[in-house]
């Protein structure tokens, strides 16, 4: 495959891909449609079904539309609730293969980070310019990819959006990893994609901030000091492996494994959290913005 650069949190800069991965999306869509059909035959709404299997209604909707990959635990619960006679369990191994192949939807340079992220037991993120990729709504992500220059092919946009949504599966995994985000307040005011996309993204922040085990803080724009005006970064700890830093700028990205550099990023992140609004004040700020729109 030819090198494909860009495409981390913000987007891609190459208009074409060398491989067609649409069959992965088609397969996941087919599985989602099977779940939907079985649910409707059982006389359950999405909300009722979500409660029965222990997942959110939004996740069930995304799975039925083929936008999220169903985890084995969801398939097992769905099998039991819907009395699927082995149909969904039989698809579990094929879904694992599809998940592995779906990682190829990421640009080649981004795959090393994506592999670490998928194994994360701890992830901390300072975002100075955009909504963090793991928190982006589908509409927000699509808007980012569609506004990139040079212009991307629509097929490339959809592949990249699907890949980003698939990354978000780790947010629903249990036992849950330790997650925290510090987001610059300017991100909340930047109406990328238009008013409705912007509102949806603010609501997503609110949802995450109210989720047990996840911490979201906003860095106020009127703060006199900011420990990382140089740009965004992440700290990620994969299971059984040392913590790693990740920095991305324009079309370049770098994994940071040097222990001293990772320590410095940790110190910087700790200061950012101290300088930011508290989690509760951060949610109040987002609620206020939503109420003013």
Overall average residue pLDDT: 86
Strand order of the largest sheet: 3-2-1-4-5-6
- The helix content, as a percent range, equals 40-55%
Q: Tell me the major beta sheet.
A: 6 strands, mixed
Shape: globular
One letter per element, helices H and strands E, the order comes to HHHHHHHEHHEHHEEEEHH
Name the poorly predicted regions: 1-7, 11-21
The percent range for strand residues is 5-15%
Q: Please give the radius of gyration in angstroms.
A: 19 Å
Count the helices. How many? 13
Structural classification: alpha/beta
What's the total count of β strands? 6
Instruction: Please report the distance between the alpha carbons of the first and last residues.
Output: 45 Å
What attributes characterize this protein structure?
six-stranded mixed beta sheet, alpha/beta, 293 residues, 13 helices, single chain, globular, 49% helix
Task: Give a description of the structure.
- The protein is globular.
- The chain has helices spanning 22-41, 46-53, 57-64, 72-82, 87-90, 92-102, 111-118, 138-146, 154-167, 185-189, 195-209, 259-275, 279-292; strands spanning 120-127, 178-184, 214-219, 233-238, 244-249, 252-256.
- The chain is of the alpha/beta class.
- The model is unreliable at 1-7 and 11-21 (pLDDT under 50).
- It is built from 13 helices and six strands.
- Helix 11 runs antiparallel to helix 13.
- A six-stranded mixed sheet has the order 3-2-1-4-5-6, with helices on both faces.
- Helices cover 49% and strands 13% of the residues.
